[in-house]
Design a protein that fits this description.
Layout: H1 3-10, E1 18-20, H2 22-25, H3 27-36, E2 43-47, E3 56-61, E4 67-72, E5 78-82, E6 97-99, E7 104-105, E8 112-113, E9 119-121, E10 147-151, E11 154-158, H4 166-170, H5 174-182, E12 189-200, H6 205-210, H7 217-220, H8 222-233, H9 240-247, H10 256-262, E13 264-266, E14 272-276, H11 288-298, H12 300-308, E15 310-316, E16 320-323, E17 328-336, E18 339-349, H13 354-367, H14 375-388, E19 396-398, E20 407-408, E21 413-415, H15 421-435
Antiparallel strand pairs: 1-19, 2-11, 3-4, 3-6, 4-5, 7-8, 8-9, 10-11, 12-18, 13-14, 13-21, 14-15, 15-16, 16-17, 17-18, 20-21
Helix pairs in contact: 8-9, 11-12
Length: 440
Amino acid sequence: MNTPAIEASLDQLVEATRVNRQVYLDPDIFDLEMERIWGKAWIFIGHESQIPLSGDYFTTNIDHKTPVLMVRGKDHKIHVLHNRCAHKGAKIVTARSGKIAGAFRCPYHGWTFKHNGNLLKIPNESGYENTGFDLNDSCNNLQPLAQFDSYRGFVFASLSDQTPDLKTWLGGAIDCFDNLCDRAPEGEVEVAGGVLRYEHDCNWKFIIENLNDTMHPMIVHQSVVQSAEAYISTLDADAAKQKQEAEILLPFGASYENFEDSGITGFPYGHHYDGGKTSIHANYSVMPEYHKAMIDRYGEQRTQGIYAFNTHNTLLYPSLTIKCAIQNIRVIRPVAVNKFIVETWSFRLKGAPDEMLQRTLLYSRLINSSASMVGPDDLEVYRRLQEGLASNSSQWVEMHRQFGRDQQLEDRVTGGGTSDLDVRTQYKAWRHYMLGEAML
């Protein structure tokens, strides 16, 4: 990587209303993003419900190449460790999830480690006598990440010890975690229903830029919406189940005016959501049994307040997107400059009837699956972006919409729902991480 040359050009790649095409194409810039954004931000690791018992573990990558391990210790605490033996460097576990009854054991030389990562035992230990090797030296443990923390069961970690604490980093976007969990009558959610994993052969930034882009749904998803409308017109009036499935698709064809009214809210560190007072999910029916459970827990006024905070998509930049009203998340895992993986995880609202989870799973299958009717529309556009930007007919991608109309508040910025505020918020964070600029 020609770092000096890239360093010299970084400041000119992102301007107030446009982005240079190289941020999507250049593998050297991608490598710097992994080091300076994914290596410094809080990155979503997993949910505590994925490791409910002592010895349960879950593995993933925190960036494009660093394997990590989330494990429940014997003291029931969560630990996030580098998935790398302190001896020769072998990955300790390769399964996506599992359970370690006694200790982690390296498959190469058999070093064993406690659930918290501390070195437990070395085979044939006498060979280390009088060598200066210290069994109790912390460098011989599975190393914890520089920082890890959780909020309402959602576990994040950072490779940097200079990153602000998790709550500070989340800022006002923390409201979305609260709303997601408060929608559960018991105030907690848990992962349920497996994962939808979908590989995209394009740059990781396309999906998060598209997340709150409300200028595209009525174009990109036009044929899906028209098909759903045609299907509904053939149904009998009492075909409630069939209508429920098709009606999930209809809001993707909402008008520009409807999306404009939903608004966008941006936060420091690149986070944002669209909606708040309304969203494409605002007209979903409330199931009577679920509503009763919510009233019994929170009372009528508080329940209505929880329903009223109605967002569409929330981005916790750069790795996590949340749908509070639908109770699913999407996790972004970059692989290369032109490849990333997105995972969709669904959540059960504790204390809610099973129909709520079934609606979540139905939504994920219809919208986020690789075999869905909406996700492939977006992927087709991302591919065209990746291929089209290879043309040098222009060096820039613009983000002018409603520029100058954003309302800067104390801890956030707000704008119209069809604004490019979301993309500008992301690239302000991009500059912060890549250039060390002040965030506020």
